Structures are given as C-alpha cells and as structure tokens.
From TrEMBL, chains A, B:
Subcellular localization, as worded in the UniProt entry: Membrane
Molecular functions per Gene Ontology: heme binding; iron ion binding; stearoyl-CoA 9-desaturase activity
Major subcellular location class: membrane
Stated name of the protein: Acyl-CoA desaturase
Membrane topology according to the record: Multi-pass membrane protein
Transmembrane segments: 89-108, 115-133, 232-252
InterPro entries linked to this entry: Acyl-CoA_deSatase_haem/ster-bd (IPR009160), Acyl-CoA_DS (IPR015876), Cyt_B5-like_heme/steroid-bd (IPR001199), Cyt_B5-like_heme/steroid_sf (IPR036400), Cyt_B5_heme-BS (IPR018506), FA_desaturase_dom (IPR005804), FADS-1_CS (IPR001522)
Source organism of the structure: Saccharomycopsis crataegensis
C-alpha cells in the first residue's frame, strides 16, 4: 500500500488566506476617518503589525484575549445599560454616518436648495456611487477586471468623497464579508437582523472573539490604493465637502448650499445606498442561484445601488464584472465597466461561464421543485403496499366492487366510478380485471393527470405481477408499439 | 398457482366507449344543417342506425369498406386535381362557414352599420358564445357540471344560433377529439397543420378509414338535446338570422342591418372563435401541465373564446368546469357557471383536486429542467474516469503542477489557478495534496457555483479513496459538524 496523500494544512492555508504568511507593505492609515467601515477590532491591527505578525503570534494573542474575556467580559458581550451604553457605541462612526447628516438636515432649514446646486449634488452622487461600485467593489475588492491608471485615479478620488473609508479598509472588510457570509465572523452578518446589517454593526462595538482577516496584499501593491489610504482624511474632506462647497460658491455663489446639499446630503445618500447592499440585498428578493445563504436579487436594491442589487448572483459569482446578466436588468456599473473596456481604460473583464451560471439556476429550481413534490400526494409507495396473490384479488373483488388491476398494481376506484370523465360504464366493465391495456391506449390513452390520479388509488401489489409504478411510461411504451395503428 | 386475472376485452370496451353496445334512443337529425361540424363519414351514420348496429355489423362494414378502398381509393386519398377538386370539398360546410359570410360581407357594402344594431350583434355574440362554451362544451360534451332546465333551454336556444350544428353532433365530434387527440382519428388533428385544424378539416372530405365513435347516450337522454337536434334547422335559421332581423327591424327599422350584422356577421365571428379552439389552442402558447400532446395555454385564445384558451389545462382536466385556475386568467365562462350555481341554476360543479393539478405542473417543470440539465456540462461522470492509485497521483503531481484531490476525486485546476477568485496562492498551497477540508470550509466554504466548477475539472478517481461526487453535500456535512465554531 502507498502512503496517504498529504492534506492541506488548514492553519497554514488560513494564514495564506488572511495574508499573514508574508510581509505586507507598510501603509500608514491616514487618520481615524480611514478606518470607517472597518470595525474596531480590525482597526486595531495596522498594516505594519499585520506584516510583522505571523500565525503564532496571532494565535498567542487570541489565547490571551480569550483568557482576558473569560475573566472580564468584552463590552460587546455585556447587556446595554444606563451605565455602559456610551461604551457600546462606536463614536467615530456615529459622527460620520449620523451626526454629520443630522447637522446637515438642521442647516438645510436655513438654506433653500438652488437647482444648480441640486444638479451638482446629483452629479457628484453619480460619480461617487459609481466609484464605490465600479472601483472599490468590483475592481479592487473582487478583481473582476483590471483598470488603467486614469480610471483607478478617478475611482480613488471620487470614492474617497463617499465617506466610506479608504479602498484598503473597505476592500478588506468586504472580502471578510464574502469569505464569512452568514457567520459570526461576517462584519454585517445578515442573520442578526435588518438593522444590524444596515448600520447597527458599525454603530456598536463588535465582539473581538469573531475577528477575521483577509489577504489584501494585491490591493496594497497598487500605489493608488496606498496613496489614497495615506492621505485619506484630507482627500475625503476635500472631495466630500470642500470641493462641492467651492464649486457652488465660485460659480453661483452658493457656498453653504454646496456644502450642505452637494456635500453632506450627497455623502449621506451614497452611504445609505451602500449600506443597503449589506441589508436590503440580504433581505428582500429572489434567490435564483442558491438559497443556502442570505443574499438576494431585487430590482429595488439594484436601483439604489447602481446595479449591485443582484446580490444572489454576486455572492455565487463574485469575480464576475457583471451583477445582472439579463439585458433588462438594471446594472449601470456593468455598462460603465464594459464601456471603459471599449475605450481602453479597462481590460481583462472576468465572467463566469454561462454553463456555471445555468447550473446554479437549474439546481435552485430543482430544489424548489423537490419541495413542491414533497408536499403532494403521489400515492402510497409500492414498497409500503401489501402484496396480494391472485386468489386474494378474486376474493376481494367480490366484496369490493371497484378493484382494478393496472400495471400489476391493485387500485380501489370505487369512489371514482361516477366521477370518471370517460363515464361510469367503462370503469364498471373493468372492475375485477386487468385493465392495463384498456387504460393505456387500448380504449383510451389517458392523460398524465389521469395516471397521477390512478396512483393515489393504489391499495396493493400483485404477487409475481408485472409491476411498474410509472404507469404513464408503461403507456408510452405500449403506444409506441402500436404506433402503426394511427 | 392461481389462474391468470382476466384482462378487459378491448373490443367490448371500445364498443362501450363508442356507445354501440346498447340500443340508443332514436333521434332524427333535423336536416343537413344539423350535421355541421360533424364530418361526412360520421354524418352517414344516423342515430337510429347507431341504435340498431352492434359491434359485429360495424366491424363487418369496416371490412367491406377496407376491401372497397383497396380496389378504388377514397376521394380523400386521391390527390387534388382539376378534375376532382369539387369532389374533395364538403359543400354543405362550405356554404355555412364561407359562402354565407362572404354574401354577408357583400351585402354589408350596401347597408351602413347602426350602433343599435351593433349593440344587438355584440349581445347576441356574447349570448351565443357563452352557450357554446358554457353549454355545448362544458355542460354537455364534458359533463363538467349539471344544469337545471332554464339554463339548458337558454344554451340550446342561443347555441343553435351559432351555426355550429346541434348539441348532439357537436358533443359527439368533440368527445372524439378528446379521445383521439393528435391521432388520425382526431377530427381536427392539429398535427396536420394550422389551417387543417382551423377549417380545412370541415371543408374537405375526411378519410373514412379513420372514422371514430364516442358514446353520447347521456346527451340523448336529455330531452332538450333531442328536441334541439330534431328541430335544429328551423331553430338555427330563426335564432341565427330571423330573430336579429326582426328585432332590429321592429324596434329601429333596420331589418337588413339586423340580418347582416347581428345575424351573419355574429355567426361568422362565433364560428371563427370556436374554430380557434381547435387551431390556435393547439398551436400557440405554453404547455404548463403536459407537453406530450399539442394543446396549449394562451391568453389570446382565451380572449377570443370566452376563456377556452387554457387548453393545455383543459385536455388534462377535461371535466373540470374551469379552464383557467388562476384568478388573473381570463375565463368568463367559468364565472358564468359559478354564478349560475350560486343562484341555483347549476349544480354539481366538478373540479380536479389541487393535488392532481400541481402534480402536472411539477412534472412538466421537471421535464423542462431535465432538458436544461442535459444541455449543461456537469463534469465527467465518475464511472467514466480512470482510477489512479496514490502512487500514480504522486507521480503525476510532479509532472502537472495543478492536481488537487478533493472528495476522493483528482482535479486538474492548472488552467484555473490565476482565475481563482480567492487568489492564486491558495490554490498553489493545495496542489499535490488533499484539499477536501480546506475547500469545504476549513479555509472557505465555497459556493455551490464553485463546486459545480470544480466538477468540470475532474480527471480521475483515487483508488480506495472516500469518493463522493456531490462535493457540495460533503461540504454541508462538514459544516454541520463544525457548526459550533461560528
Ligand atoms: C381506473 C382508473 C381510471 C382513472 C383514474 C381514469 C381517469 C380518467 C380521466 C382523468 C379522464 C379524463 C381525460 C384524461 O385525463 O385523459 C378519463 C377519460 C376517459 N377514460 Fe378513464 N380512467 C380510469 C379507467 C378507465 C378505463 C378502465 C377505461 C377504459 C376501459 C377508461 C376510458 C376512458 C375514456 C374513453 C375517457 C374519455 C376520454 C375523453 O373523452 O376525454 N378509463 N379517465
Ligand atoms: C481547486 C479548485 C477551486 C475552485 C474551483 C475554487 C473556486 C472558487 C470560487 C468560484 C470562488 C468565488 C467565491 C465562491 O464561489 O464561493 C472562490 C473563492 C475562494 N476560494 Fe476557492 N476554489 C478552489 C480551491 C480553493 C482552495 C483549495 C482554497 C483554500 C485552500 C480556496 C479558498 C478560497 C477563498 C479564501 C476564496 C475567497 C472567498 C471570497 O472572498 O469570496 N479555494 N474559489
Ligand atoms: Fe453581501
Ligand atoms: Fe461583493
Ligand atoms: Fe382540443
Ligand atoms: Fe373540450
């Protein structure tokens, strides 16, 4: 005998997946705002720490923390009380996704919206939104295609203005989300409720017990990503708030309006739209490709997220540059990428094969069908039926006036005689007899429905009979043989 | 051993089905027009002949005819020529379904349509159409429910005005159609083309080789049916043409208009609509219940036929008083029957069980799915793969850099390494090894789609390995075991 085949070392492979098996380039986060949308336990690990750490030190620290929390529980494991609620809250995120927008709403009462400012806001909303979906998400987090410098600069610039953190942070937590979907390690774990997956997860401190890592060394290899991360705070403030303020002020003297509407409001709307991918897209809609996990397809989610709403597809085929595959589905991000490739700004667009896509569809439909089948009455399975010998059938036929033998199976049709669409006399002629041929084309080739009905009337199987449960198939064989007659 | 169970005598049973096993009431056909929509070979058998004939005389005559046609071919078996075309045509039907309408169109040029006459025509069209669908078809031909005298009189009266023959004739050929659907015995055999099933069948003489009979003794038991049949010609002429002429003439002095529009035109439209059930309903639309025969469901057919367009359903469930089962489908005939039952005019409404209906849907969907499945690549079946022992796997792994063992199956992933959405390094770590656990949750619980992809890369099976082709199921079992981890 040969020796066993070596198994992949799970610990080593996890280190590869987390990117902790090799030194990672040092990239210093650009201040607190760079950490938005990463959660605290993750924020505590800086890039250089990641680089230095190997699996053993990580494991050692996990053990340490476990010990610590076995004595004193982490804040996330304690109930919310009047005394500790402020410890539960992630105040940085609170300011960036709630306090600033509320301030914006308050200021808005003093500043009427001008239509030029509105147009500016909508324009920046579109540029920012597409930078998140086409850039942050499909380009960087999923490597669904490659992009030349101008497009990457565009994405990094306008993406920063969405106040959702740097590409590096965003890509990391998104990869963790895909890798750990619907587990406690999933940062936006949809199983914990709509609110939690929408904003709750970023407003309260998470449990470090469930920390997770994903390899993002390929992101850090891109100088655009590194530069954006380093200068994130200033870039974000400039693109998100100062730029719209200056444009609206310089050209039509609406500094405050530009700040409020094309700045704060725009950022708020983009944030909410992005959050919808984590909440709505895991809650409403169909699951045409797989229903073992929460992601769902819904046109509504697609509308608010520039086409990211076909999320059931996306979780099955994450590195496909498309989210929608049918022409009538709404996926402007896909069109942007496709158009960019036509003018040479994007290349290497990845798609999953049509075969793989249709396999998913077929398997999911099969599941649904199996569920429907299980809820219907298909007649007693033959193996659960009593076996009668012929003598017993004769005897019984004298007592009960509605026994008909078809395909080696005894059916009690007494309750159906007067219901028979072909008339009572024909069934009466057949009771106590073998009606296989008559029923299967000799007199009338019954519909598939009639064969189903017949099965529900099974009561016994004839010993040594030519038994076949699929009477419709038996009929088709009989008909094929007598084809010449027609 | 017991003696064999007697089989149903096919000849006897066919006699029962044809109604030739017992004397049938004598009902004299009311002139040539009563025979409309029956075809010539049928028309030659009058009701009293049927009553006198037993199976033996029928068989004898069949033999006789066979002999006759073996010498001289029946007109229907001869090609159409300049010399014999007038022998091919069924002139009675030609007059009733083509000549009269053409005459009507010609007269119409001289007689402008008045709106009152139009309303009368539409009213009579509705009353006539519903009498065919609710009366001729569902009540009498299919016994889908029972009706009290007033409703039967209503149907018989307005049904006569549709110039489609008597209930007796109509019901007979319709039962033959259902019993012999898609065979040469089917009077409107859809397999012979759209035109043939629409009107061709009644305009040319059929081949008596394919004559067929159905038992209609239950129809003849109804005195309304007998009376209508006896007086058909006068009743038809009166209801179809004279009545609308008189009404329009007496009340708004439009005798000619009443005759043309509310008489001839109305009859023409109803005829065409009815013919559509034989043609359109076997040609356009979906087959949600069964696709082994031609009938189809289509909203368009339903619209022109007062709801008879769900013909795939109808051929599976002919004695169901409904044709449409969903609330949003158009079936006014069903509503008429249902409303009649609410006011006591109809009773004993028959439906097939929801179970039987859903069984049909499920089976048909399964067929479609199986067809789709068969067109996709699911990877080489394990039984067609070579069996490698472990030694051979080691050896091969040295040559080819992309062999991965998962679930006892060897996969060649070399072409996929750089395509891997989880990154190339993870696959590289796994080559030459058993990656079952890593692939199935140890590092990442792959999507169903990934498992499908994996299957397409199979190249061999490991001897004495723990082989399972359903790697997704294997993964789900593994995940269930380590549930506690999340
Ligand atoms: C024993 C159980 C039987 C069941 C459950 C049954 C069921 C049905 C059903 C559901 C139909 C409606 C049409 C269709 O679905 O195809 C039908 C019609 C008919 N059946 Fe049966 N049948 C039985 C036995 C027989 C036998 C033994 C005969 C002949 C000896 C027979 C002859 C006919 C005929 C002639 C029709 C009329 C076809 C038509 O006009 O649509 N049936 N039967
Ligand atoms: C050998 C054949 C393999 C195939 C065909 C394959 C296929 C895929 C596919 C299609 C995805 C996209 C996400 C999904 O569909 O679930 C994926 C992601 C991934 N795979 Fe694999 N994989 C293979 C091997 C491996 C191995 C051996 C490992 C681990 C040792 C691994 C780890 C991962 C990880 C970590 C991801 C990223 C999850 C994410 O961010 O979405 N894969 N793989
Ligand atoms: Fe998601
Ligand atoms: Fe994603
Ligand atoms: Fe039909
Ligand atoms: Fe019918």
């Amino acid at each position: 005998m040969s020796s066993a085949i070596e198994s992949v070392d799970i610990t080593d492979a996890n280190a590869v997946a987390a990117g902790t098996n090799k030194p990672v380039r040092r990239v210093v986060a650009g201040g607190v705002a760079g950490k938005l949308m990463g959660y605290k336990a993750m924020v505590n690990i800086t890039a250089d720490e990641l680089a230095k750490e190997n699996l053993n030190t990580l494991l050692a620290r996990d053990r340490e923390e476990k010990l610590k929390y076995s004595k004193q529980k982490h804040i996330s494991e304690q109930p919310w009380t009047f005394g500790n609620w402020h410890q539960h809250v992630n105040w940085l995120n609170f300011v960036l996704v709630l306090a600033i927008p509320i301030m914006g709403f308050a200021l808005a009462t003093r500043c009427p919206l001008q239509w030029k400012t509105a147009v500016l806001g909508v324009t920046l909303y579109i540029l920012g939104g597409l930078s998140i979906t086409g850039g942050y998400h499909r380009l960087w987090a999923h490597k669904a295609y490659s992009a030349h410098l101008p497009l990457r600069l565009f994405y990094a610039f306008f993406g920063a203005g969405c106040v959702e953190g740097s590409i590096k942070w965003w890509g990391h937590s998104h990869r963790v989300h895909h890798r750990y979907t619907d587990t406690r390690r999933d940062p936006y774990d949809a199983r914990r409720g709509f609110w939690y997956s929408h904003m709750g997860w970023m407003l309260e401190k998470p449990n470090p017990r469930y920390r997770a890592r994903a390899d993002i060394s390929d992101l850090v290899d891109d100088w655009v990503v590194r530069a954006q991360h380093r200068h994130y705070i200033s870039l974000m403030l400039f693109v998100a708030f100062i730029l719209p303020c200056l444009i609206a002020g310089y050209f039509w003297n609406d500094y405050l309006g530009g700040f409020i509407y094309a700045g704060i409001f725009k950022a708020f709307v983009i944030q909410q739209a992005t959050f919808c991918v984590n909440s709505l897209a895991h809650w409403i809609g169909e699951q045409p490709f797989d229903d073992t996990r929460t992601p769902r397809d819904h046109i509504l989610t697609a509308f608010v997220t520039f086409g990211e709403g076909y999320h059931n597809f996306h979780h099955e085929f994450p590195s496909d540059y498309r989210n929608a595959i049918k022409w009538y589905q709404y996926d402007p991000t896909k069109i942007l990428i496709w158009a960019s490739s036509k003018i040479g700004l994007a290349y290497n667009l990845k798609t999953f094969s049509q075969n793989a896509i249709e396999q998913g569809l077929v398997q999911q439909q099969q599941k649904k069908l199996d569920r429907m089948k299980a809820s219907l009455n298909w007649g007693t399975p033959l193996s659960s039926l009593p076996v009668w010998d012929k003598e017993y059938f004769f005897e019984k036929s004298k007592e009960t006036k509605g026994l008909v033998l078809i395909s080696g199976i005894v059916h009690d049709v007494s309750g159906f005689i007067t219901e028979h669409p072909g008339g009572a006399p024909l069934i009466r002629t057949s009771t106590g007899k073998d009606a296989t041929t008559a029923f299967s084309g000799g007199v009338y080739a019954h519909s598939n429905a009639a064969h189903n009905l017949l099965a529900t009337m099974r009561i016994a199987v004839i010993k040594d009979g030519d038994v076949d449960a699929d009477t419709f198939k038996v009929q088709e064989q009989l008909l094929r043989r007598k084809k010449g007659d027609f």
